[in-house]
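tool=predict chain=A
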Amino acid sequence: MDTSHIIRLLVEKALYIKRLTPEIENGINEELTRLGHISEVDYEALELLMAEMDAGRVQLVSSV
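tool=predict ok
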């Protein structure tokens, strides 16, 4: 997997299934920790995810 796209792929998965699972959230957090920074494109993807969650179109779930 191209490591430059992991965050965007995880956000895309959350948007597709309309759920932010612990696995997706942990993957995002691990990648942010590994990189030590966030690109503008990843930041925008995460902003979109948060906006979708705020609008109620993506649910935070405790497990799948």
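The chain has three helices and two strands. Strands lie at 19-20, 59-60.
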